[in-house]
Specification:
Elements lengths: L14 E9 L2 E9 L3 E4 L8 E7 L9 E8 L4 E6 L3 E3 L7 E9 L4 E5 L3 E3 L4 E10 L4 E9 L13 E10 L2 E10 L6 H5 L4 E8 L4 H8 L5 E3 L2 E7 L4 E8 L2 H11 L3 H5 L9
Parallel strand pairs: 1-5, 4-6, 5-8, 6-9, 7-10, 8-11, 9-12, 10-12, 11-13
Antiparallel strand pairs: 1-2, 3-4, 12-15, 13-14, 15-18, 16-17, 17-18
Length: about 280
Amino acid sequence: MTWPSAVGDEGAPGRGAVVLARVGERTILRAARAASPLRLLTPRNHGHAAWVMLATLGGGLVDGDAVRLDVEVGDGAAGLVGTQASTKVYRCPTGTCRQDTDARVGEGGLLVVIPDPTACFAEARYEQSVRVALAASASLVLVDAFTAGRVAHGERWAFHRYASRTEVSRGGARVVHDAIVLDPAHGDVGARMGRFDAFATVIVSGPRVALLVEAARELPTPARRASLREAASPLGEDGVVLRLAGTSVEEVTLAVRARLGGLGGLLGDDPFARKW
């Protein structure tokens, strides 16, 4: 086994790597490592896919924390990467917290990335990037969600900066480049977000998730109700991008789960069953 080359120094703070491989009808965790503050949990499940859950020591990211995870999904393997809870970003008086994920998915492989939403507290600075390189016949389900922060504590959209970038390539050609920057320097964030407190982008692509793609494309564009807005856009011939905005985290979370209700059948076990 060869570690993903981008991991660099094995003992570097916040660095982690996961290698998944298909053995018979199941996917196994061939290897994994992580350095503080990153922790990797590998819960057992009843399906054929391997699950990895991310957590951080202290329950969140503090000023200057940097976390990087490299994921390698072998040919025909299936893996799920999630989080133990929402990613909390505390105030950053002097620096910026960041998370970076780089993944490669082999031919016929499936990667499902469904972290809980990111919640930036007042005066937080946070940046993240997600890069996924898919082989020609690989499949992907990717969720990127964020919230207004600790609304109950009066910290609605009170962070200093939030920046997220997602890139997906297939067969070496880039098919998705999605970025968002929220910064009070560009105007009051709360005013621009209106009544919405949670947002999510869902990317579904590839032959193994064809039924999810078909179901999502049947969504009226845009779908509206007072507490939730949804829109679906085609992504090539075998993909779709969903965008959701809701007045609460619960509203968006339930909508995402409804759109991805077929994941249990694809993985052999329901990844949402243990979530609230």
